[in-house]
Amino acid sequence: MENSKAYDIPLRIFHWSFAILFVVSFSIGKIIDDDSSIYAVHMLSGILMASLVLLRIVWGFFGSKTSKFVSLRLKPSELIEYFSSILSAKSKRYLGHNPASSFAAILMFILTFGIVASGLLMTLDISEHFFEEVHELFTNGLLIVIIFHIAGVILHQIKHNDGMILSMITGKKNYVAGEVGIESNYPLIGIIFTFLLIFEGIFLINNYNFNTGKLHIFGSQLLLGEENKDKRSRGNSYDDEDDDDDDDDDDDDDDDDDGDDHHNKHKEDRD
Fold it and tell me: If you count Cβ atoms within 10 Å of the first and of the last residue's Cβ in the chain, which end, N or C, has fewer?
C-alpha cells in the first residue's frame, strides 16, 4: 500500500525527546530519594521538558501542515464521534493527529507547564507542601494522559494496521483517501532543534552545582537540592537561636547596668 509523509522530523524529535525526558524525570522522582544529588536530574529534565513544549508551540505555527495547531481536531463533537467509531467497522482515519491525539497533545502541554511551575515553586519557602501536592496532581494527570494515548495508538494499530506506531519513527502512514502528505520533512530545522536541546542540556548541567544544589541561571540562583533546603532551614534556625542568645546577652547587660546603678546610689546615700 502506498505511504504518505505524515510527520516531519522536528515533530518526531519533539515526540521522542519528550517521551524520554518524561520517563527519566518520572522514574527518578519515584525511585531516587529526594536528598540524593541524582534527584536534581529529575528537576533538570523537567526544565528541558518545558523548553521542548515551548519549541513545539513555535513549531505549531511554522511547521508542516500536520504539525500546525490549525490541523488539530479540537471540536468536542469530533472527539465524541471518534470514540463512538472506534468499535465500529468503519472508523475514520486521519493522516495527521486524530481528535483523541489532538486533545492529548494540548493536555500534555498544559500539564507539563503546571508540573514545571509547581516544581520551581516548591524550591521557595512559600507553601511548599501545597505546591508539592499540586506538582503530584499534575504529574499523575500527565501520566494518565500518556497511558491513554499509548493505549489508543495500540488499539488503532490493531484495528487498522496502518503503520501508526511506526509513523513517529519513519514519519509515514498508509495512504489516507482525500489527504495529501506533507511536502518537506524539514531536516535542517530538525538538526537545529536537536542542537538547541543538547545545548540547553549542557548549559543546565554546567550551571548546576551538585554539591550545593544550586542552579545558576540568568543571574539568579535556584535551590534545587532537597538536602540544601534542609541546610537553609537549619541555617534559619541557627539565626533565630543566635538572635535569642543576643537578646539574652542584652538582658544580662541590662541587669548588670541596673546592679551598678543600685550600687552607686547606695554608696551616695551612705556618703
Answer: C
Nearest to 68 by CA among 105, 19, 100: 105
Q: Would you give per-residue pLDDT tens digits along the chain (271 residues)?
A: 578 899 999 999 999 999 999 999 999 999 998 888 888 899 999 999 999 999 999 999 999 999 999 999 999 999 998 888 876 766 788 889 999 999 999 999 999 999 999 988 887 777 778 999 999 999 999 999 999 999 989 988 888 777 788 999 999 988 787 788 899 999 999 999 999 999 999 999 999 988 888 888 877 787 776 544 544 444 444 444 455 555 555 555 555 555 555 545 544 454 4
Tracing cell 502512514 back to the chain, one arrives at 173
* Per-residue exposure over 169-185, b if at least 16 CB sit within 10 Å of its own CB, e if not: eebbbbbbeeeebbeeb
Please give the Cα distance from 118 to 133 (Å, whole number). 9
Say how many CA atoms lie within 13 Å of 223 toward its Cβ: 14
The model's pTM is: 0.80
Are 201 and 41 in contact, with CB atoms under 8 Å apart? no
From 116, 120, 146, select the one nearest 53 (Cα to Cα).
116
Directed axis angle between helix 99-122 and helix 128-160, to 10°? 160
CA 108 from centre of chain:
10
